[in-house]
Amino acid sequence: MMSLVLVKSTCITNLKFWCSSNTVIQKTLALLNDLSVGFSSVRKLVKLDEIQFLLNNHTSEHFPLLGNTFSVKDMRHRSSFYTSLGRLLMIDLLEDEDKFDNFMIPLTASVESIGALLATVNGVNDTSVYSNIEAKKALIGLIRDLRGLAFSFNTKTSFMLLFEWLYPSYTPILLRAMELWYADPEITTPLLKLYAELALNRSQRLQVDVSSPNGILLFREASKVVCTYGNNILNLDVQQDMLYKKKLKGISICFSMLKAALCGNYVNFGVFKLYGDDTLENALNIFVKLLLSIPLSDLLHYPKLSQTYYGLLECLAQDHMEFLSSLEPQVFLYILSSISEGLNALDMSICTGCCTTLDHIVTYVFKQLLLKGKKVRRRMQQVNEIFLRTLETHLGVFRQILQTVLNIIIFEECRNQWSMSRPLLGLILLNEEYFNQLRDIILQSQPIDKQTAMAQWFEMLMEGVERNLASRNRERFTQNLSSFKKELTEKGSAISMNSVNNEVMITT
Fold first, then answer.
1. What family does the Swiss-Prot or TrEMBL record give for this protein (predicted)?
2. Is the pLDDT of residue 229 over 60?
3. Does residue 66 fall inside a structural domain?
4. In this structure, are residues 81 and 54 in contact, taking their beta carbons and an 8 Å threshold?
5. What contacts 139, CB < 8 A, 6 or more positions away?
6. CA-closest candidate to residue 153, choices 62, 86, 56
7. Does residue 410 contact residue 436 with C-beta atoms inside 8 Å?
8. Which of 83, 76, 80, 134 is nearest to 110 (CA)?
9. pLDDT band at residue 507, thresholds of 50, 70 and 90?
10. How many domains, the chain?
């Protein structure tokens, strides 16, 4: 216990008197973070007077780190500081709202002072507050403090205390800040990251009660922030060398936030359409607008942007295919083109995600073709007919993707063969004639003495496979593909896919 007292006293001393040294602060906060993680150590720590002092006096008066004298870059330490404090607070917090409110007093004072300042702003073009450095730093510091707490509050009780403190009293202040400073990444980046953290169902902390509207309310607020930022950033002209910092980074965080919200399993999205609420529609539409503002080359050039985009797209294909199928033809074709490019990505997670997304899309298309002509609701039939007509007009897109997948499986190492097999069956069933053409060209490209063996391997690939996408049929095809690839690896010879490209003209 004495050693813990000494360590904590040293930490507090460093935070009080060594704030000018970035190295000291960074290592001190890292130590504080490590100590706040272990359950046994935390229960001992919260009993110390030094820790109680820390929990009750986290103000700039005692800890200069929390003031506005530091650079914006150094303010990121505040998130780490409040993450540790949040973990320490949770040990004895339980459902004690008074204890939580007492802890939040400094943050409450900060957000209310910022709110009072923003209330004096006459309009978006009012530069009086925009150029106020102190106001800007105070806002950034508050946002980073809240993000640290949101990260550490990974239980349902603690997170809901934070959310109910934030909503509805203070979320309008944060939204107003986004309206004013949408072009300033020093504010928009931490603010978007705060909402991305709030929307993340970490440790199932957002599994709200059936009678609670908090999940829907949280999604509404996240949607407002994304739409406010997106609609404004679309009209912002940015130089190429500043494109990622001032625009693409924020868009990437928006994609991450939407994925966290859509895949969090804490919102019944059917409620929005049922009651005429356009929250979900607005969020999905701004995703499309943001996506179309990004050239495909930029989408693939920036790794973080690629990861968040393909992750969100996988989520949409899984649960919101009706929305994707209702998109304008050029938008849907752009998405398919991005999937085709992603299949060749060096990042295996992106490639695997594209396989999953493609599988959802192909499965949806296959099911709609089966439903065509059957008695279904008129509205749904009209939507599906438009979607299918688009695909019929652009047969070359799926053919190109089929060729890409076959190319990867046959001529490359293909470390995610199982993932590749999932959409491949559907692509073959949707393009049987074209698949047969590809097979014949591959056979003809082989030496004469190996054509027979290659033909047998292709027959093995489809042996026992029926014309459906049932789970058992998929598994059979996956097993066949494994055997097919094994034979190719051990006995086959590589050929250039260029010969295939040259002989088969893809209709676009």
1. Belongs to the exportin family.
2. yes
3. yes
4. no
5. 114, 177, 181, 187
6. 86
7. no
8. 134
9. very low
10. 1
Of 205, 223, 204, the residue nearest 269 (C-alpha) = 223
Residues of the domain holding 128: 1-168
Quote the CA–CA distance of 220 and 281 in Å, as a whole number. 11
Cα gap 112→110, rounded to integer Å: 5
Asked if residues 427 and 362 have their Cβ atoms less than 8 Å apart, the reply is yes
What letter would DSSP give residue 506? P
In a domain, 327, yes or no: no
The answer as to whether 110 is a domain residue is: yes
Cα angle, residue 24 at apex, residues 18 and 28 outer, rounded to 5°: 100
Contacts of 121 (CB under 8 A, 6+ apart): 128, 129, 176, 180
| Calpha distance 140→184 (Å, rounded) | 11
Q: What percent of the chain has pLDDT over 90?
A: 62
d(C-alpha 349, C-alpha 270), whole Å? 30
Structure tokens at 248: 């693409």
Reported as a pLDDT band with limits 50, 70 and 90, residue 160 is: very high
Please work out, in degrees rounded to the nearest 5, the angle formed at the alpha carbon of residue 196 by the alpha carbons of 252 and 239.
Answer: 30
Nearest to 46 by CA among 15, 84, 16, 18: 84
3-state secondary structure 458-469: HHHHCCCCCCCC
3-state SS class at 217: helix
CA distance 12 to 15: 5
Say if residue 261's pLDDT is above 70: yes
Is 203 domain-assigned? no
Q: What is the pTM of this model?
A: 0.91
Collapse the DSSP code of 183 into the 3-class scheme (helix H, G, I; strand E, B; otherwise coil) and give the result. Answer: coil
Lowest pLDDT segment from 43-52, 58-67, 83-92, 367-376: 367-376
39-48, 114-123, 124-133: segment of lowest average pLDDT: 124-133
First to last CA, the chain: 73
Closest CA to 314 of 375, 366, 377, 258: 258
Contacts of 324 by beta carbon, 8 Å cutoff, 6+ apart: 316, 317, 332, 335, 361
Residues 277/271, Cβ–Cβ less than 8 Å: yes
Alpha carbon distance 383, 371 (integer Å) = 13
Residues whose CB falls within 8 Å of the CB of residue 272, separated by 6 or more in sequence, listed in order: 278, 279, 280, 281
Cβ–Cβ < 8 Å for 309, 255? yes
Q: What angle do CA 188, 191, 193 make, to 5 degrees?
A: 105
Tokens 């050693």 belong to 3
For residue 316, give the amino acid letter. Answer: L
Say which amino acid occupies 425: L
pLDDT tens-digit map of 355-372: 999 999 999 999 888 877
pLDDT average, residue stretch 68-80:
88
